[in-house]
């Protein structure tokens, strides 16, 4: 027993344990690195020519705020690692480049065409791994479930964008824009990247299939025919109650004035 005890406490035991620990940590690092490289390959699968042209466009139009190497400045955040999806959304919807500094980038006609937007996305994606532009499979609303999309939307988005997706006011002069008429790609990109005041809904929070369901629901809202009456901002009982209260008060005041005028 004494001999076995001495073997278990051999001076080389610490070195063996250290070697095993290094092998384990090295293996975990290799797996993590491979995952990051796979993500980078997904988000930077552009030609060298596209990246070069995108860099020219970036230096000419974006570097003033975001820095020559997209490292950011006091006027704009760093774009390293934001991915192609963020650029595709911001530039594709005309929000970037901004016309002027403000509390929120305004929707406006795009300054760049589709090819130039793709080239800018390619350049920014080459700077670091980030969310890629979604695949067409997840933009096909014919494969989506509008009923499930409504559930996901009401649970995660309606508090800002309204249950009907027509947008709404936020604090300090900000607002959630309407989602009616927005392209499938840009709706998906907004959920994936969280522009402006919007939170990021990663694939862990909302799966790609659920994102497609949300888009399907929103597209169904665009073609739904109102059954009648005034929409009143689609705010439900809040605006409806206010309208009824205001009309009722006006009627009571008018009736009171009519009665007093007859008595006089």
UniProtKB/TrEMBL annotation:
<keyword id="KW-0732">Signal</keyword>
<keyword id="KW-0249">Electron transport</keyword>
<dbReference type="InterPro" id="IPR009056">
    <property type="entry name" value="Cyt_c-like_dom"/>
</dbReference>
<keyword id="KW-0472">Membrane</keyword>
<keyword id="KW-0349">Heme</keyword>
<dbReference type="InterPro" id="IPR050597">
    <property type="entry name" value="Cytochrome_c_Oxidase_Subunit"/>
</dbReference>
<dbReference type="InterPro" id="IPR036909">
    <property type="entry name" value="Cyt_c-like_dom_sf"/>
</dbReference>
<keyword id="KW-1278">Translocase</keyword>
<keyword id="KW-1133">Transmembrane helix</keyword>
<dbReference type="Pfam" id="PF00034">
    <property type="entry name" value="Cytochrom_C"/>
</dbReference>
<protein>
    <recommendedName>
        <fullName>Cytochrome bc1 complex cytochrome c subunit</fullName>
        <ecNumber>7.1.1.8</ecNumber>
    </recommendedName>
</protein>
<keyword id="KW-0677">Repeat</keyword>
<feature type="domain" description="Cytochrome c">
    <location>
        <begin position="144"/>
        <end position="222"/>
    </location>
</feature>
<keyword id="KW-0813">Transport</keyword>
<feature type="transmembrane region" description="Helical">
    <location>
        <begin position="242"/>
        <end position="260"/>
    </location>
</feature>
<keyword id="KW-0812">Transmembrane</keyword>
<keyword id="KW-0408">Iron</keyword>
<dbReference type="InterPro" id="IPR009152">
    <property type="entry name" value="bc1_cytC-su"/>
</dbReference>
<comment type="subunit">
    <text>The cytochrome bc1 complex is composed of a cytochrome b (QcrB), the Rieske iron-sulfur protein (QcrA) and a diheme cytochrome c (QcrC) subunit.</text>
</comment>
<feature type="signal peptide">
    <location>
        <begin position="1"/>
        <end position="30"/>
    </location>
</feature>
<keyword id="KW-0479">Metal-binding</keyword>
<keyword id="KW-1003">Cell membrane</keyword>
<keyword id="KW-0679">Respiratory chain</keyword>
<feature type="domain" description="Cytochrome c">
    <location>
        <begin position="49"/>
        <end position="128"/>
    </location>
</feature>
<dbReference type="Pfam" id="PF13442">
    <property type="entry name" value="Cytochrome_CBB3"/>
</dbReference>
């Amino acid at each position: 027993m004494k001999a076995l005890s001495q073997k278990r406490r051999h001076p080389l035991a610490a070195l063996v344990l250290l070697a095993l620990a290094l092998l384990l940590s090295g293996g975990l690092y290799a797996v993590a690195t491979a995952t990051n490289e796979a993500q980078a390959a997904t988000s930077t699968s552009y030609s060298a020519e596209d990246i070069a042209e995108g860099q020219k466009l970036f230096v000419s139009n974006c570097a003033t705020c975001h820095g020559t190497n997209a490292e950011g400045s006091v006027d704009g955040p760093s774009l390293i690692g934001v991915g192609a999806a963020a650029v595709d959304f911001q530039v594709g919807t005309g929000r970037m480049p901004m016309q002027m500094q403000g509390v929120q980038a305004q929707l406006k006609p795009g300054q760049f065409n589709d090819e130039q937007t793709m080239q800018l996305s390619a350049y920014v994606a080459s700077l670091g791994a980030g969310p890629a532009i979604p695949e067409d499979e997840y933009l096909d609303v014919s494969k989506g479930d509008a009923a499930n999309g409504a559930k996901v939307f009401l649970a995660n988005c309606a508090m800002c964008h309204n249950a009907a997706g027509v947008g709404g006011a936020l604090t300090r002069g900000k607002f959630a824009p309407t989602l009616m008429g927005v392209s499938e790609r840009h709706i998906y990109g907004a959920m994936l990247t969280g522009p402006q005041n919007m939170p990021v809904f990663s694939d862990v929070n909302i799966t790609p299939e659920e994102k497609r369901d949300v888009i399907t629901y929103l597209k169904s809202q665009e073609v739904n025919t109102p059954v009648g009456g005034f929409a009143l901002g689609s705010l439900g009982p809040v605006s409806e109650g206010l309208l009824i209260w205001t009309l009722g008060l006006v009627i009571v005041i008018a009736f009171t004035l009519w009665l007093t005028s007859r008595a006089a």
